Model the fold of this input.
Amino acid sequence: MRIIAGKYRSRPLRSIRGLDLRPTSDRLRETLFNVLTAGNPEALAGSGWVDLFAGTGAVGIEALSRGAAMVYFVESSKRATDLIQGNLRSLGISEGFEVLGKPSVRAISDIEQRGVRADYIFLDPPYGMRGAYAESLKALGESAISRNATVIAEHEKRFDPGETFGSLVRFRKLLQGDAGLSFYRVS
Done:
């Protein structure tokens, strides 16, 4: 696993064997960021991100590498939050992020109470936790942090997380290999 582009391009990231992590593949991450930048490598400059179920931190670190100003890494597992912090340290990243060791719905509420407005919110629960999609997307659909954000859910190709969650409406679904990306915006 490595960073695809930007300041930390080709630098490796660590994962932990045995921890229930399924990092977003390099290929799917590259597709995600190609869609978001649409040929403009500066499109993410200064953006704010929330990386829910962050795991290794690969998506949020990729965003930082491509110019994001702030990334909130949300992960409830202590081992995974330690891994994210280790990956950030190994790249020399010391600012522009916060690691929140708490469940996604609680983190969404906490971030909203701070007045944070995100440009991009990425969520990738463990595939076996299908209920976490509806729970997190519903919380985002009711939250002010997603008002102007693009919300992206990574999921299994054969699982559809749903079309609408409160004010969030899916506007694009992209399938690649065994995975899919669903893109949502507030209607």
